[in-house]
Amino acid sequence: MKKLVAPSLLSADFGNLKSEIEMINRSECDWLHLDIMDGVFVPNISFGFPVLESVARLCCKPLDVHLMIVQPEKFIHEVQTLGAYSMNVHVEACPHLHRVVQQIKEAGMKAGVTLNPATPVSMLVDIINDVDLVMLMAVNPGFGGQRFIPHTLDKVRELRRLIESSGSDVLIEVDGGVNRETGRLLREAGTDVLVAGSAVFQSTDAVDEIRVLKNL
Ligand code: DX5
Ligand code: ZN
Questions:
Q1: Residue 72 and residue 183: Cα distance in Å, rounded?
Q2: Residues 99 and 120 sit within 8 Å (Cβ to Cβ)
Q3: Largest CB tally within 10 Å, which of 34, 55, 80, 117?
Q4: Which of 30, 38, 132, 175 is catalytic?
Q5: Lining residues, ligand 1, CB within 6 Å
Q6: Could you confirm whether 175 is annotated as catalytic?
Q7: Which of 202, 69, 66, 197 is nearest to 144 (CA)?
Q8: Cα–Cα distance between 44 and 33 in angstroms, integer?
């Protein structure tokens, strides 16, 4: 199991984006998590590619892009142009998930598939050997600062069993409601990558909070 931390920029102070990214660069975090929303797949809109181009220029950490949009395959090229490390698409947004996963990998990025809280881990049985990471939502996507759904812990354990039985080395990432307490439980359950938005950006010392999450 890996122990990675990916702060989510959604909870940053957008009026001070440059200093927020300088904090990310200074910290022990592994990736920067970027949430793109369309107001259709989720009931909110975040930021788009013009903003992310500036973020990508300033940030020296690998970018983990989470698309909460319908038809995410339309934007593979834009995400690739950002220089993203990984591109996460929702299973619920991709009827032709296998094709999308292949296209993301052909574009030179790690392919991540994401499950909403009500989508079972069993949806992954026929794709697990094709993906690089699986992200489980521990909240309904669209907003930062929501409460962690405890059933996610059972899903992490089930996903860990699926990964072991398939013999793959897929990373397990969890997004939503992650803080020191839920993060510890998630690590115990077998989570490789903790995504944390408000826990990091609303703390008094974000660099220290990242260090704490890293050492859970
Ligand atoms: C929610 C986003 C998350 C969000 C997490 O839809 O995908 O990445 O930033 O925020 P917290 O950690 O505050 O739940
Ligand atoms: Zn996210």
A1: 28
A2: no
A3: 34
A4: 175
A5: 8, 10-11, 33, 35, 66, 139, 141-146, 175-178, 195-199
A6: yes
A7: 197
A8: 17
Which token pair is 81?
A: 């142009």
Return the closest-CA partner of residue 43 out of 13, 68, 72. Answer: 68
191 contacts: CB under 8 Å, gap ≥ 6: 1, 156, 172, 173, 174
CA of 201 to the centre of ligand 1 (A): 11
Residues sharing a CB contact under 8 Å with residue 161, sequence separation 6 or more, in sequence order:
none
Summarised one tens digit per residue, pLDDT across range 34-92 is 999 999 999 999 999 999 999 999 999 999 999 999 999 999 999 999 999 999 999 99
- Residue 9 DSSP one-character state: G
- For the beta sheet containing 110-115, the strands, ordered from the edge strand earlier in sequence to the opposite edge, are 4-7, 193-196, 171-175, 133-137, 110-115, 86-90, 63-68, 32-37
What spacing in Å lies between the alpha carbon of 153 and ligand 1's midpoint?
Answer: 17
**Is 35 considered catalytic here?**
yes
Q: Which atom of ligand 1 is nearest to the CA of 148?
A: 14
* Distance, CA of 108 to CA of 103 (rounded, Å): 9
Report the pLDDT value the prediction gives residue 79, as an integer from 0 to 100: 98
- Residues of the chain with pLDDT > 70, as a percent, come to 100
pLDDT of residue 156: 98
Q: How far apart are CA 142 and CA 90, in angstroms?
A: 13
